[in-house]
Amino acid sequence: MTEESYQLRWVGRRAVVPLPAEIDVTNAEQTRQTLESAAGHDAAVLIVDMSQTTFCDSAGVAAIIAAHKQTTAAGTQLRLVAPGVLRILTLVGADQLVPIYPTLESALAGTPPAQASTPDPRDEPGGITASGDPQA
Asked: What's the rounded Cα separation, in Å, for the pair 7 and 92?
């Protein structure tokens, strides 16, 4: 796939790359190349729009991490919009590297992203108490 097949668009110096519904080993390399190419075109911000993405395997996550490394080296800020795959990105720690926004509008505006919250087992009935003991 080329940048055109990903429908790369520009909003000022912000490049927006919408990604497909599924990112896996079959298209992860093309995804990485497209993201790195967009960052190489003097983008101040690269927004990876995964709002339509419902599946992202480890190859897709690796493509995002590779894009993060290149954008950081180029002085470009990387932002993700990933409501459908937020859990996997959070589980692998990608949210610690790249800010993840709930909507494209908030990513374009640079509104601070909402932090994904991991439930505290102490808050659940039958969970663990603050002392570490199981609740009755």
From this structure: 27
